[in-house]
Amino acid sequence: MKTLNDIKKIAVLGAGTMGPGIAQTYAMGGYEVTMWTRREETRNKAIAALKASLETFAEEGEIAKEDVETIFNRVSFRMTVEEAVEGADFIQETITENRDAKVALYEQLAACVDKDAIIASNTSAMNIFEVAPEQLLPQLIICHWYAPPQLIPLVEVVKSEQAPQEYADIAVEMLTKCGKTAVLMKKFIRGYIVNRLQQCLNREVFYLLDNGYCDAEAIDLAAKASFIPRACVLGLCKRADFGGLDMTANNYRNKSYTMPEHGDELPKTLEALVDAGNLGIKSGKGFYDYEGVDIEALKAKRDKQLFEVFRLEKKFLNDPV
Q1: Rounded to a whole number, what is the distance in angstroms from the first to the last CA of the chain?
Q2: 214: which strand partners?
Q3: How far apart are CA 128 and CA 131, in angstroms?
Q4: Rounded to whole angstroms, how far apart are CA atoms 45 and 20?
Q5: For the chain, domain boundaries
Q6: Cis peptide leading into 148, omega within 30 of 0?
Q7: Which of 155, 206, 207, 150 is nearest to 176 (CA)?
Q8: pLDDT at residue 262, rounded to an integer
Q9: Alpha-carbon gap, residue 16 to 144, rounded angstroms
Q10: What is the CA radius of gyration of the chain?
C-alpha cells in the first residue's frame, strides 16, 4: 500500500483554467509535475500563467524570489497522456466538465496507467465514479479544488467506494504538505460541501433581486459586513453553538424562514443578464459595470486582497476558537 513518502511524481492532466494553478501548488510542495495538454497554444498560455503566478507569490513574500526558477523548473509538459502519466505516482485530472471528454480520457488512462497510481479528479459537476471504467475505481478519488487553485486554500477530498481509505488519507496529507486546507468527506454527493452551500446562497440572492427587496450592491455589502468575516472565526456549525442550538431549533419550529417558491428554476434576474450578454468581467458587465476597467489589473488587485484575507484566515485556522 502506498504512503505519502511514495509520492514523488505527479501528473496534471489538463492545462486550462485550473491546471497551471494546481501544478504550481504541487511544485511549490516539492513535487516533480508533468502537465498534459494536446494543444501547443494551451501549453504556452499555461507556461505564461505559471511564470506570472510564481512572480506574484514572490512579490507577496509567499516564496523566495530565488526559488521562482527552481519551482518553475519542477513543471514539465507533455503532449500525450501516455507520456504525462509514465512513472506518475499521483494523477490529477483537471480537464473540461464534458462527459464525453472525461470518458475518453479515463479510457486512455485505463489502458496505460500503473495499477498502484492514485488517480484524482477535479470534477465539479459530475459523479466521476459513474463515468470512469470500473477497473479504475479501486484507485480513483476526487480532489475538488476552487479557483484560483493556487490561492484558494480549500480542496475537498472523497474516495470511490472501491478505493482504500489510505488513498484519500494520502491525498489529504499531500495537499496539507502543499499548504492547502484539505477537507475529507465521508461519501460522495454532487456539489460537495461548498458548492452546495453556495447554491443555497444563490437561491436567496436571486429571490431578493427578482422580488425587488434590494440590489446586488446591498447584498454584497451586507454579506461582507456580517456573516462572511464571522465565518472566518466560527465557521457555520460552531456559530450555531455560540448562538445557541435551541435558538436555531426555534427558528425551524416557528417557521421564521421559508424556502423561496420555485427556488430551483432559473432566476429572472440571472436569465435577463445572460440573455443581454452581461456575463461578468469576461464581457465587461454583469451585476457591476466593468467597461473601461483594466481587467488584468483588477484580477491582480483581487489576488493581492485574497493573499491578505487568507493569511489572516490561516492564523485563525491555526488557533481556532
Answers
A1: 37
A2: none
A3: 5
A4: 9
A5: 4-184, 194-318
A6: yes
A7: 155
A8: 84
A9: 15
A10: 21
**pLDDT under 70 in the chain at which residues?**
none
CATH pick for 194-318 out of 3.10.20.340, 1.10.1040.10, 3.40.50.920, 2.60.40.10:
1.10.1040.10
Q: How many CA atoms lie within 13 A of 170 on its CB side?
A: 25
Yes or no: say if 32 and 23 are a contact pair by the CB < 8 Å rule: no
Q: What b-and-e string marks burial along 98-115, b requiring 16 or more CB atoms within 10 Å of the CB? A: eeeebeebbeebeeebee
3-class DSSP string for 253-296: HCCCCCCCCCCCCCCHHHHHHHHCCCCECCCCECCCECCCCCHH
Helix, strand, or coil here: 33? Answer: strand
For residue 68, what pLDDT is reported?
A: 98
Homologous superfamily assigned to 4-184: NAD(P)-binding Rossmann-like Domain (3.40.50.720)
Q: What is the pLDDT, as a whole number, of residue 302?
A: 94
- Nearest Cα neighbor of 26 from 13, 11, 42 is 11
Q: How many Å apart are CA 5 and CA 153, to the nearest integer?
A: 22
Which amino acid makes up residue 43?
A: R
> What are residue 241's phi and psi, to 5 degrees?
-60, -45
Q: Are 85 and 14 in contact (CB under 8 A)?
A: no
Residue 202 and residue 213: Cα distance in Å, rounded? Answer: 15
Spell out the alpha helix ranges (H) of the chain: 19-28, 40-59, 68-73, 81-85, 99-112, 128-131, 165-177, 194-210, 216-224, 227-234, 237-243, 245-253, 268-275, 295-318
